[in-house]
Amino acid sequence: MNSIILIKPCGIDNYEWLVAGNNATAAPELMVGDSERLQAQCNQTNTVTLLAHAENISLKTVAFERHERKLLRQTIPYSLEDDCIDNIEEQHIALGNMAESVVPVAIIKRDILDQSLAEALPETLEINQLVSELFYIPLRNNSWSVVVDGDRWLVRSAQYEGFALEMDAATFALQLMLDEADQLPEQVIIYCQQAQQDAVAAQLPELLRGIATWQYQDYWSVIAAGLSQYQATPDSINLLQGDYAPSLPWKRWWQTWKVATVLLAAAIIFQLLGSYTQLSVLEQNNLELRTEIEQVYRSVIPRGAVMDPERQLRRKVAALKGASGEGFVAMLSQIGPVLNAVNGLSLQSLNYNEKQSEVRITILASDFNDVETARANLAKLGLKAELTGSNAEGGKTRARLRIRG
Hints:
With 405 residues, this protein is α+β, with helices and mostly antiparallel strands. 38% of the residues lie in helices and 28% in strands. It contains eleven helices and 17 strands. The strands form four sheets. It has a five-stranded mixed β-sheet with strand order 3-2-1-4-8, with helices on both faces. A five-stranded mixed β-sheet has the order 11-10-9-12-13. A hairpin with a 2-residue loop joins β9 (143-149) and β10 (152-158). The two termini are 88 Å apart. The mean pLDDT is 85.
């Protein structure tokens, strides 16, 4: 069971409140104090309820058609318009738990509700419910309950029927209830001080005096008994609905997480500053590196446009290499000594294919054996020398070789 606190202002910065703890067997505890003590108590409570003066609230049960169920908040004001003395637009209407075809409602003037919320509690205190005090008056089957609280009489005749008036007006209202009742109650339970019994009995309508049952309890003792009954079968109507629905408890969350939030924000700021500083250093290093690359490129190729010096240098280097990774210069340095070592052999032509990484040469030798000697020596160096053609020419042999790395 959740802990509940019922609060009632009783002066400037002074409050009375009833606390029902998580232990179902423990009796509710009445406490008195200022806003600081009340705030500390509310911080330990699950449900914070402010008791609203019953004089300001009208309770009714309104019937509705089945097709109106989803639009009750829009249609209920029209249903109540003829019963309200004041302009219905000036009223705040809160709905209770809907039955099959009826819904209980609580009606209060908006300006009174605004004033109650503004003046009743300190700004730092956030409440979950605003409920008429009538809902915490105990109710028995076929009985009426009357609580005498000073000059006030609080009368509850059914689950969603009751009122609070001064003594003289309450007597008249009770007589009207008797005149309009289809069935008289079996008893009227009257809660008051023993010293008040004779005076209260004299004010009761005659029909009620014979069925009066007396309970000598003060206001908060009655509310405590009603709270126990309410926790078993909750039936109240929370006025904090619609425009008055409570927002998320940002203030309480802020007080709880303020230090952690500030530290987290500071850590994030320092992290961002560190990342920004590191990024600036890296950008400066990158700029210096790009400058060095451009200088190296210009030292090799002093003329021409420079768009991307690193990529342009890579292309120039790649142009000097074959697909296998052996460069033209390296292949030529191997082929040249082999051809020079064969007497009477001369190079007629040379072509280099970069894509296939091969060299095609035409040589003129004294005889075909010299051609074979040169080809064999190239093969010993790991090169693939392939004879692609030969012919005799003036007592000599002209041959064409394809050499690959």
